[in-house]
Amino acid sequence: FVDKMADDTSLGSLRNCAKVLNEFARKEELTDDILWCRRLQESLEMLTDLLKCEENRTNLPESVFKDASCLLKAVLQYLESCPLDAWSHGVLATTTECFRFLRNSCVTCQANQLRVLNADLVPTTTAIVSLLTKQQELTNGSLEAADLVVQVSSSQMLALRCAVQLLGNLSSGNATSQKVVWQAAYPDVFLSALECPDPTAAGYCCMVIHVCLNDSTMEDLVLDPKGCLLVQTVVNLCERQPDQDWGLLLVTDKFLMSKFFLPNVYRTLPLETRITLLDIISAKIGESEGSSPEDVEEQALPGFVLEFLAAEFHENFHTILSVGENTENLEAVIIMKLLKVLCLGTGQQEKYMELVRMESLLESAVELLRLTTAAGKLGDNIFSHSQRMVPPDSPDEVHPVHGLKRDLIRLLGNMCYQNRSNQDKVRELEGIPLILDHCNIDDHNPYISQWAIFTIRNLCEGNHDNQTVIATLENKGLAENVALNDFGIEVTEDDGKLTVKSASSDK
Fold first, then answer.
1. Is the pLDDT of residue 138 over 50?
2. What is the pLDDT of residues 384-433, one digit of tens each?
3. What are phi and psi of 490, to 5 degrees?
4. Is the Cβ–Cβ distance between 422 and 432 less than 8 Å?
5. H helices present in 172-302, as ranges
6. Is residue 458 a contact partner of residue 416, using CB atoms and an 8 Å limit?
7. Which of 279, 288, 343, 282 minimizes the C-alpha distance to 310?
8. CA 105 to CA 119: how far, in whole Å?
9. How far is it, in rounded angstroms, from Cα 53 to Cα 49?
10. Which of 96, 141, 236, 269 is 20–30 Å from 250 (CA)?
11. Based on the number of CB atoms within 10 Å of its own CB, is 59 exposed (0-12), middle (13-18) or buried (19 or more)?
12. Which tens digits make up the pLDDT trace of 185-231?
């Protein structure tokens, strides 16, 4: 009996709220005084609260959506006719509550989603979103004016958040709604929301795009210059707001999962945006390291992503040779980021075997290692072998090619692991002596000696021909080791045996 009485009370409250909303919607002219009437706002607040219950969402009268459409059209007219600095805090508060109850009405309720569409609320909502993204400017320096701008801007952003959330809930699980929202919001409304000063609203916009993207809309995105701009804006948002989950999910779960994305979009992006995108890809690949076989398919990026990036590396790796002492060379940074992604990918052969089999990638790595080694021997430069015991945060540490030769050797080691074809190819390219030449400490390439030993091990495992190459190398004596000398340690050779002693032991 108590539950039945509660149900009756909820139903009666729904009808009362609907009656109040209808009363205001039937007015011939909705002025700003009427739009922020406290009675209307309280009814909308009650509707929002009531619609948290699934049964109330089912019982909501269809007339409510038509009345809400009338109300929001009046809001739109008000916002369009008033200067930005004259927008009423009360009107914005009412607008927020209207979007809130509509948002709640669409949760797991396709009937209400259809009613929102039939009430023609999507065009009105997207038009309001575009207006709400505008920023106010302080026209005079008084504290009162500043407080008013802050107050209205806060209300403005709150209304924007709720409007975008409505679009998201409307689109969730409903292909028809997704199509309508995409057609109404792509690309300009999405762009304005992504570029708004409120990161939360921008994140909600990423959620809407995530819900609406499918094979058809992805094609719109990648083939349209404004679509590429939208991608750039999303990636830049991820860089500015690294904790923005919806932005990252949009990039990793939607953009990168499309085989059309990188070939059509990557080269249109500014260099800075490419760097951020490569950082996101590195983080995504790193997440799946050590994951269980059941999670591999869910977490891993498609192989075509890394194969595209390997082709980019192959095509552009020569550009890094012209870096010189320029620590802000973005093209060199991109080559290093590409190399990092490829090292991570080739380290997970069970997921990216096609990448490991790319002969052009192997050839590029050996060739770049050869060229940078030769360049380093021409004089004291960033590619030269260094044993100066460089302190942390020195200029060398922040140089874009810091660690280049180490990562090239790491890449070769990964690709040669239990892969006879790649082992033989490195030998044919005369890469074995080249790798052996990097078994000393090098401050420009931390841990390079360890990676060189790892790579030699992988080259020789099960490969007698490679073992023979190393066995027949001629002993040319000790290499100079400045780092050990600086510490007062001397290494000598006597009848093939190495002796380590203090340089001052004779004194």
1. no
2. 777 665 555 554 556 788 899 999 999 999 999 999 999 999 999 999 99
3. -120, 135
4. no
5. 175-185, 188-194, 199-212, 215-223, 225-240, 245-249, 261-265, 271-287, 293-299
6. yes
7. 343
8. 14
9. 8
10. 96
11. middle
12. 999 999 999 999 899 999 999 999 999 999 999 988 999 999 999 99
pLDDT higher than threshold 70 for residue 50: yes
Per-residue pLDDT reduced to its tens digit, 246-302: 999 999 999 999 999 999 999 999 999 999 999 999 999 988 666 555 555 566 899
Helices 330-346 & 271-287, crossing angle to 10 degrees? 20
H/E stretch holding 451: helix 448-460
Half-sphere exposure of 459 (CA within 13 A, CB side): 31
pLDDT at 125 over 90: yes
Q: Where are the alpha helices (DSSP H) in 289-352?
A: 293-299, 303-316, 330-346
**369-391 average pLDDT score:** 77
Report the alpha-carbon distance of residue 164 to residue 182 in Å, rounded.
13
- Check: CB of residue 276 under 8 Å from CB of residue 235: yes
348 torsion bin: left (phi>0), alpha (psi -120 to 50), beta (else): beta
Interhelix angle 225-240/215-223, nearest 10 degrees? 100
- Give me 147's structure tokens: 């407080």
Question: How confident is the prediction for the chain on average, in pLDDT?
Answer: 86
* Cβ-proximal residues to 117 (8 Å cutoff; 6+ apart), any chain: 170, 176, 177, 180
Q: Residue 80 and residue 85: Cα distance in Å, rounded?
A: 12
